[in-house]
Amino acid sequence: MNGTEYEDNLEVIVRDSLGCFTPLSADQIDTVSNASKYSISENDRDAGSSSLEDVFGYMAALNKMAVSGNGICADRSGNASLHDSLISTADYISHKVNGASVRYIEIGPEPYKTELIIKRLIGNGVDLTSYIGLDINPESEKAMRLALEPVVGKQRFSYKINDYNELQSSSFGFHDGITVVAMMGFQEGNELPRKMLRILKKLTSKGDLLLSEMQLSSLAGWKPIIDFYSLQPMKQFSQKICERAQLKPAGQHRIFLTPIETELGPVMTAATVIPYKLFDHHRYLLTNCCLKYTKDQFRAARKKENDFQIVKEFFSGDQTVAYQLTLRN
Ligand SMILES: C[S@@+](CC[C@H](N)C(=O)[O-])C[C@H]1O[C@@H](n2cnc3c(N)ncnc32)[C@H](O)[C@@H]1O
Q1: What average pLDDT does this structure show over 87-101?
Q2: The pTM is what?
Q3: Least buried of 219, 298, 310, 318, by fewest C-beta within 10 Å?
Q4: Domain 62-216+298-328, what fold?
Q5: Over 90: is that where the pLDDT of 244 sits?
Q6: What percent of the chain has pLDDT over 90?
């Protein structure tokens, strides 16, 4: 791996950090790329089926819990749960677009939060002309159609099965109005800041609104992050990633928070590693890594090269999740 490849490879950087900051040693840990966790592999093709539907299902299950309306991430008085923060965000977007027609592009689609947001936009009178989902995982389209076609109408739903690294804003065609690009589910944390900025710059054009959701790191503690990765669907996700790599898990995943050096300074990263056995050797597979910016780092990540300006931020009542709305300059 040359220097540039190393600098762009979050998984390898996190593996090395785990080797420095935890009892694991880096040479015990194997990695798989983020894209390969969600994209069709030779093994899927050989088996004639894929486990990618499950991978999508675990993420969807987390979102179902998040918007279930039972106060997840609310403050002590029950205000600003994730559900309510999404509603506030949708209300703000409705006001901000000021009567213009809206095209909604979702990178890494999920059904529950998106249905909530889109129903709210439409309920607020927004003229939603189309929804476009973009996913590397071909197994998400069916569920997204099922969730959204009844809301937006068959004609206004479209889908692209592609790697986001390979597309640009022109790949979505022209829209006379405002394009909202949404990337939810802490997905921003799956790439290094400079790489994600490059991707987001390419996928947007002047006047677009970009919505991103981030689980924050703060001195209030790491418990919310640990609790999130302890949820059953996250454990199942790790098991599945291990199986997809043709390895047999030998236990439950372990969760670590470990710092990595970036151009924004040190960023805490949540990492899950699952044990497996190779002959007589005990090894680990890094099944997930996700940057957890502080509030300031999340702002700095977007403003780094002056391509975006922050329009509005919403925070969950417990201050652990941010919804950041930015405008592409
Ligand atoms: C952490 S999950 C988040 C899913 C969803 N946005 C949510 O709110 O739960 C990451 C998502 O990004 C998609 N994804 C990952 N890498 C991708 C790539 N290179 N191109 C397109 N989609 C990708 C995955 O299929 C998955 O849907």
Answers
A1: 98
A2: 0.96
A3: 219
A4: Rossmann fold (3.40.50)
A5: yes
A6: 92
| pLDDT for 274 | 98
Q: What is the pLDDT of residues 9-34, one digit of tens each?
A: 999 999 999 999 999 999 999 999 99
User: What is the distance in A from the centroid of ligand 1 to the CA of 176?
Assistant: 27
Mean pLDDT value across residues 223-230: 97
Mean of pLDDT over the chain: 95
Output the 3-class SS for the chain.
CCHHHHHHCHHHHHHHHHHHHCCCCHHHEEECCHHHHHCCCHHHHHHCCCCHHHHHHHHHHHHHHHCCCCCCCCCCCCCCCHHHHHHHHHHHHHHHHCCCCEEEEEECCCHHHHHHHHHHHHHCCCCEEEEEEEECCHHHHHHHHHHHHHHHCHHHEEEEECCHHHCCHHHHCCCCCEEEEEECCCHHHHCCHHHHHHHHHHHCCCCCEEEEEEECCCCCCCHHHHHHHCCHHHHHHHHHHHHHCCCCECCCCEEEEEEEEECCEEEEEEEEEEEEEECCEEEEEEEEEEEECCHHHHHHHHHCCCCEEEEEEEECCCCCEEEEEEEEC
What are the domain boundaries of the chain?
3-31+233-292, 62-216+298-328
- Residue nearest to ligand 1 atom 19, measured at CA: 163
